[in-house]
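Troubleshooting: if your tokenizer reports a length mismatch, compare your output against this known-good record of 496 residues.
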Amino acid sequence: MRRRWPAILIVVTLAWGGLALTLASGLTPKLGLDLRGGTSVLLEAPPGTELEVAETAIEVMRRRIEDFGSVQEPEISISEGRGGKISVLVQLPGVTDQERALDAIGQTGQLSFRPVLDAGFLSPLLTEQALTTDGSFTFPDGVDPATGLTLEDDPDAETAWLAELDEDGQQAFVYQVGPTALTGTDVDNALALVGVGGAGSGWTVQLELTSEGGEKFAAVTGALARFTPGTPQRQLAIVLDGVVVSAPQVTPGIDPAVGIDGGSAVITIGGPNADSEARDLSTVLRYGSLPVSFERSAVQKVSATLGADSLQAGLWAGLGGLAFVIVFLLLYYRALGLITLLGLTVFGSLLVVIFGLLGRFQGLTLTLAGVAGVIVSIGITSDSYIVYFERIKEEVRKGRVLEEAIDEGFTRVFKTILTADFVSLIGAGILFALAVGPVKGFAQALGIATMLDVFVAYYFTRNAVSVLASGPLAEGGWFSVRAAAEGRVLRKEVGA
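Known-good structure output:
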């Protein structure tokens, strides 16, 4: 039985040690809206809306929501139902200003092309321009003195100070831009290509404009071509929802009197991430200004107090169910019930660790429906123990030695456990694929717990029962494995 101990120790260390590290490092499961409080909105896209269009609108929506400050990680999920119907669930944990959140969600991003007047790094351009001779600062209306950026961008304003974001969503560059020269409606198509337009190699974006857009584009690029190559004033900023997506420069050799005519242009993309940048830019150019007007299907506001009460109620329900299961198994299976008790603590600890890690690195949240899924999984895991223990009893009644009954019983019953868990996993997968909202949380928790049940059964339960069968609780006494398998205690009580 010595070979059984290493597996038990490894699993127990992963479970209990992982739980201790999770609690010590604050890597606890990320709570969803119904457990933390906040606002939830279910949106429906108009019939015929392309999935790519909806995804672009959602990214604009996400950026707006994050500007609130109180919502660091909004939870936005999209699903496509029958007939191509697109639904979007927006969950804003911790949001208190519900009206502002709904306004941000309901608005549609606007794509515009605007000439660059000046550009610089994070030290705001406006701060330098606002410095007066006496050392004080004067800022125009609508400009944040702390950042030097325009608070609410008006595409038709004479000037605005807008930021370009880096990969982490931080301000990487600041542009002072003029009024809109073109809008997204002037764009006919945009494609990300490799080695096109005289670039030789690398990525480019082939921009196609409408007839009216081509005339506007020729006029603005002709005006920009009058400036010296390499200067900010020769750039044309592409702005989506008040954020500069790209600011390509008019190439040398363009005649200022003509500009870039013909209704098409090529934007060259350089750098190590040129492929993804080119694809993103082409998506923005194609879909950035399309009127995707989501309809609010349902709005729910959950107070923080109600969320805490829901979490407490869920925990008490889970602990109550667990207590009843443990008491029953201890009375019916005696020493084997101890294995169930230890196994469920291992199962629960690993579940907390997994939810904590997925919450940190994948954004997985534990909702009230997820708590219900965990509670259901207690029953699934308990079934695995009961099926195994009953098989041991059957093998003992056939006359097998206890250790042989344990090994043979697990070999036979593991197929049953796999089959049952596989059915549960299929059900969880179907629910996750077809459902929207809280049911997805239930399916996630149930699926994770089901896979974990197989792991615990194979690496912990089998080995732990084998170790128990070789110890003092194997053969002697009313609490032994043998007594539970043969039902000797019950027969003595009846005979008395």
